[in-house]
Amino acid sequence: xxxxxxxxxxxxxxxxxxxxxxxxxxxxxxxxxxxxxxxxxxxxxxxxxxxxxxxxxxxxxxxxxxxxxxxxxxxxxxxxxxxxxxxxxxxxxxxxxxxxxxxxxxxxxxxxxxxxxxxxxxxxxxxxxxxxxxxxxxxxxxxxxxxxxxxxxxxxxxxxxxxxxxxxxxxxxxxxxxx
Length: 179
Prior knowledge:
By secondary structure, this protein is mostly helical.
């Protein structure tokens, strides 16, 4: 569960104490930003996702009931914001592709392209796989912790990890960006 100081900050923030909310955000912002960055691998986009997560945190903190660890609840909130961001990006991409002239994107590096291809492969694996991969492999959470965050059982997470590995092994490897 949460440390006593975090619990006190949450309760004070739930009571409308803006200073306590600020302290709560300050103490968890690195976690929020890090997870957002792992989702999109782009600093400015991660900052946007983190900002949205903080806004959503302010709007929904009163709903937190201490039934799970605050960080688990916070991860779910950031995942929701990241998914909203991703849907927004897809809408923008579709709008650009429907235009008459292609829009060059000189800012993408080879690393970003490689990460993008990897994330596309994770997306194509099926429902919940990307979230599972990020929580278990990028964040280093246990299957039980990832299950609690995503609202599924530990065995579902284990099954997803197993399935993900098998499906990725059957695919053609991504081209090395440094080859």
